[in-house]
Every structure is written in structure tokens, then in C-alpha cells.
Amino acid sequence: MALVKDARRHIVPMAQDNEPVMRSQLRFAGATAAVLLIQVVAANTPVAVSDRILLIALLAVPVVTVIVVVLPWDAIDPRWTLAVPLANLVSIEALRVAAPVAGFGFLLPFPVVWLSLSFGRVGARIGVLAALTCVWGQLVLQTYTSVIPGPIPAVSVVTSLTVTILFLAAIISASERRITAQRRLLAGQADMLDDARRQVVGEQQSLTAVLDEIPFTVITYSATGDPLHANGAAVHLLERFGLDPHTPAHRLPIYGPDGVTPVPAEQLIDRALRGEPVASTIYWLGHPGNDRIALDVRADPLPPLAGIQGAAIVVARDVTAELALTEARDEATASTSHEFRTPLSSVLGYLDLVHDDPSTTPVSRDHLATAIRNTERLLHLVDDLLSSRSAPGDAGLDLTISEADVSAVVREAVAGQYTQARDRMITLRSQSAGPALLSCDPLRLRQVFDNLISNAVKYDRPGGTVVAQVEPSGDHVVITVTDTGHGMAAEEVDQLFRRYYRTADARASDSPGTGLGLSIARDIVNRHDGTLEVHSQPDVGTTVTVRLPRPPKPGVTA
After folding, report:
1. Contact 210, 216 (CB under 8 A)
2. Of the residues 68, 208, 286, 451, which has the fewest C-beta atoms closer than 10 A?
3. Contact (CB, 8 A) for 107 and 31
4. What is the pLDDT along the chain (558 residues), one digit of tens a residue?
5. Contact 172/125 with Cβ under 8 angstroms?
6. How far is 441 from 88, CA to CA, in rounded Å?
7. Beta-carbon count within 10 A of 62 CB
8. Do residues 346 and 260 touch, judged by C-beta distance below 8 A?
9. Measured distance CA(192)–CA(364) in Å, rounded
């Protein structure tokens, strides 16, 4: 009873459909037929088919086979398959009783192996117990009773069968334990892989949800220009132009910054895959004359994805409204600058007339010279506002080259800020080791130093110190303007040379400004083949360094 309960609790066959059960039964039927054929034909051993027990046993094998083929095992409790090998055991024992010399005893391991493979250790125990019961039961009954007729089997034969059955059962049981351990290991690994897959799917879904929420267009492309993934913003953008999210890159209507030069989108992908920078570049999406938008595009290579070699990610931001605002601002700046230029030119003309009048006293002439210089500076500033409509660093700034002392230019710029520094109780001074002669445009350099010193005074702390220093350094002259103000964060320093940009402190103060001064100053320094750098530390101060070459490089002309 304990064995039956244990079997009910643990018997779980490896297969529950027709094919494995039918395949095992057909093998057993074939083996039975082979033994019978060998004994009748090859061994020339007479088999009395008229024997009722032999006839019933021989018919039992095909009958069980037919039943196995017909029954829907996938719809039956799997434990019922236990009956098939047990029925075969009964058939084998009947064949041994009916034909003791035919060798049917060699078929006994078949049901034992079947039970062991299908039901594990429990099946092996049941198979061994049933087989030994048949073998030793026949020996006992024939030895001590007359229930089973026929010759008594030799003890040596029964012992050989017992050893064979036990040996096979032991081997199969050990193999089954190893197989079970491997199966559990594989099941654990499968569970781990399934957990990893679910985690990856979850992370992918989270990433997709995040990408769909951001307002930027994000598309990943293969090396051939086929889209691999597009976020929600990209889908909406492409649908706006009647394009499918799966549209290859070569079919996108992309144009360069001028809006008329076609740019194959696959070239952007190729550049990204080659490691060339594609960042903050303006492209137009849409054909000229139709609805179109301006995009600030960035492209970068991606590591291999799911076996795909050479993928690139393209991130684009709609800057159409920003460009429209910039254009409107430039138009307003140009219009205002033109309005200023006409009266300033008239003022400068009349000042020149009075300055050259013989009746003008020397003191008045000095005052007029100062007024003329400042009026000329205003005209230059107006010209700079007009040239600021062009891209930074272009040739919109004309230079008039002559030999000048940079130290003197810096001293003049410092003198021009004394009054403002005094009003804010700021110590302002210049330092130099002597004359520093350069071939340069002194008026343009004065514009640079006026801007740098004015900024240092305006944004220094009350009671602070501003120092403008000129120092020769090898083939260069280095000019530094240092203040003890609030300083700037690294993020602000990175934006300083962007046109119309003003720091948070500048916007919060009542100091007027356009945000063009540093951009124009750097362009002037660049035109002199020099460099302008800003180093700042919050709560410590800011140092602006200008490096100008001496002697000047060939090619700097008016």
C-alpha cells in the first residue's frame, strides 16, 4: 500500500501523448516477434501454438498494441500508462510458462527499462518488483504446487534473470538520477534566462516609454539606412510629411542649412559610423516650397545591437520657431542699427568741422577729439550689430593694420572705466612690463579691452579689484583681465560666446547689454590670429586671457 501511495504521489511520465507510448509498445511487440521467429525458424525449436496459454499470451501482445494505438493518451491520466508495461510483463510470464525453452525470459528487461525511463526511480522499483515476482513466483509455484504445469525452471536461469534485471535497473536508476539532476539544472537555467528575458523586456518597455515621452525625435538606423526604432515624436514628425516610420533614410527629404541643397540622410549615418562628429547641425526636412521644418540634428554610432553590426542613433530637435525668432531679431537689429548710423554719421561730420575750425580753442579741440573718438566707437558698434547678423567668425569685421603698443591700448581702456569703477568702489588698475608692440588694429583691440574691462567692473563685487595685465610671453603677448566677482558655473562659461547670451547675474542686474560683446570680441581676436579664453570659479572670480602673436602671422590684411 505504501508503494502504491508513493507511486500515485510521484509518478509523472516523461510524455503524455500517443507517440512515445505507441513507439515503446511497438518495440516490445517487435522484440517478441523476433524471439518467436528465432526459436521457430533459426533454432528449429517446436512451439505448440495449440497450447491455450501460449495462444492467449501471443494474442495478448498485438491486442495490447492495438489498444495503445487507439487510446488517446493525451486525454488520459498519465499514470494509466503504467498498465501497459505491466501487461507486457504478464504476457512475457505467460509465454515463459507456455514455452519454457523458447527464450521469452530475455524479454523481461524490456518492461523494466520502460518503467524506469518513463517513471524514474518509482517506475524502476515497480518494474523490478513485478519482474522478480513473476520469475520467482513461477519457480516457487512450480516447485511446491501444481498450479502451473510444466518443467521447473533451473535456479541458475532464474538467478541470471534476477541479476540481469537488477543490474539494468541499477544502471537506469543511476542514469535517471543524473538525467534528473541535469534536467533540474537546465530548468533552473531556463528560469534564470526567462527572468533575464522578462527583465530585458521590462527595461526595453521602460526605455521605449521614456523615449516616447521626450519631445525630441529619436531614430536608430542600421548601416544600410533602414530604421530600427523610432520614438513617438519621430512617428508624429514623419506622419506630418506623409512618411511611414519604416521609411529608409535615403527616402527622407533632407536639405542642408541653406534649405535648397539636398543632403542624403544616409551620409549622416555613414559619418556617424566613421566616428565623424554630427552635432548641432541645422537641416531642413521637407521639399522647398512646401511645409517644412528646421531640425538641429545629432548622430552618433551605437554598439552592436542584437547581432546588428553598425547602427547609428539620430536625435533631432525642431528649431523652426527658434530660427524664425532669430531672423526676426536680426531684422530688428539691422533696422535699428541703420537708424542709428545715419544720425551718428551726421554728428561725426559736424564734430570734424568744429574740430578743424581755426577759431576753436585748443582746450575745446581736445574735448572735441574725445567726442570724435567716442562717436567713431559708436559707429563701429553699430557696424558690429549689422555684422552680427552673419555667422560668428566670418569676414564681417574689417581690420586696419598698423603698429601699435598694446600696453597703451589697455591703459586707455582702463582709463575709460575709471569713473564707473569709482562709483562702484572697485579698485581698477593696469600692469605692464613696458611697451608691447604689435601689428594690429588698435581701434578693434580697444573695442575688445573696453568690453572685457567693462564687464569685469560691472559684475565685480562692490569693493572688489579688477586688474588688466599685459605681459610678453615668447612669440605672444598675453593680456589678462581678472576680477574678484561672483564667478560663473562651467555651464555658463560654455555659453558665453553664443550670440545674445547673457548670464543669470547679467539678466538679474540693471546693467544694459545685448549679449554680443564677447562674441564680437572673440571674432576680433581670431581675426588677429589670437585666442580668447575665459576661466571662472563661482564665488572666486573670473579671468579672461587674450593671446596675440608677435610678430603677426602673414596674411592679416586690412
Report:
1. no
2. 208
3. yes
4. 444 444 444 444 544 445 677 788 788 788 777 777 776 655 455 554 446 777 777 788 888 888 888 888 777 777 788 888 888 888 888 877 777 766 777 788 888 888 877 777 777 788 888 888 888 887 788 777 777 766 777 777 778 878 888 887 777 777 777 777 888 888 888 889 988 888 888 887 887 787 778 888 888 888 888 888 888 888 888 888 888 888 888 888 888 888 888 888 777 777 777 767 677 778 899 888 788 899 988 888 887 765 566 788 888 888 888 888 877 877 777 777 767 777 888 888 888 888 888 888 888 888 888 888 788 778 767 776 666 654 444 445 678 889 999 999 999 999 888 888 988 899 999 999 889 999 999 988 998 999 899 889 988 889 999 999 999 988 899 999 999 988 888 878 877 777 666 666 665 565 555 567 788 888 889 989 999 999 999 888 999 999 999 864 454 444
5. no
6. 113
7. 12
8. no
9. 94
Sheet strands (E) in 264-377: 278-285, 293-302, 311-318
pTM of the model: 0.43
Residue where the block lists cell 596675440: 548
Contact 161, 108 (CB under 8 A): yes
Give SS3 for 482. Answer: strand
- Secondary structure class of 536 (helix, strand, coil): strand
Q: Is the peptide bond before 551 cis (omega within 30 degrees of 0)?
A: yes
Residues 413 and 374: their CA atoms lie apart, in Å, by 12
If you search the block for the grid coordinates 580697444, which residue do you land on? 446
Name 75's Cβ contacts closer than 8 Å, sequence gap at least 6.
Answer: none
**Residue 155 near residue 113, CB atoms below 8 Å:** no
DSSP state letter for 183: H
Q: How far is CA 402 from CA 441, 450, 523, in A?
A: 6, 19, 18
438 within 8 A of 556, measured Cβ to Cβ: no
